[in-house]
Amino acid sequence: MPPEMRVVSHTCSNTEIVCALGAQDRLVAVDADSDFPPDVVGRLPQLGRDLQFDVEAALALKPDLVLSSLTVPGHDRIVDAFTASGVPLVVCNPQSLDEVFDDIRRIAAALELGAAGERLIATMQQQMPLRTPAPDAPRVLVEWWPKPVIGAARRSWVHDLIERAGGRNALAGCDAPTQTLAAEAAPGTPVDVLAMSWCGVKVDKYRADVVLRREGWQDVAAVRRGRVVPISEEFLGRPGPRLVEGYRQLRAAIEGV
To answer: Residue range 170-197: average pLDDT?
Structure first.
């Protein structure tokens, strides 16, 4: 990788990928949600949250590469602005775990660190051993938001993580990245474990009582038996290296049933 390469990261998952590849010294700016690794992001300009990212300020830093994303509605406006500028750009929009690995490869290639990318992927795969779900494996709902309830459906890397950890995705019947459920009525599918992974909320602010007291959910197995667990969104919602920790916590929750 050329030592003078200057990289701007628009999303926290891309920031974490760059650092896991050992290229953190190439970062010249990140988004305001990038909080890991703290010793790296703490010294960098933070150019606003993902939907308010200051594209002009980023371009003023004369980056050789911008890493962006389409994982959140509204990101396309930021991506379009970077595309119009002509700056070299890598845009990630993974749905499956395999696509997360592919994005790591693309970022590594752009940084001229292809071998490091393959090592990172191999390490992640080794640390997330495949546990084939049994026919009666616990059904897991990963909840991105509590009201309305928004959960991870089949077209998501979380679906793959649940199955890899030996569980079954409670929302596997929905062929989309997410499914929205009413908080006032029980879901139309059984749920044995509910993992709170609320987007944009620190894990110490997750409140199991919000789930446990839902009137329409009192007959849901996860609620009835108190199987409601917090798993920080930084470990499940960021398609990058720390999905390994999300896998570990999912596996612990599944094995605890």
So the answer is: 93
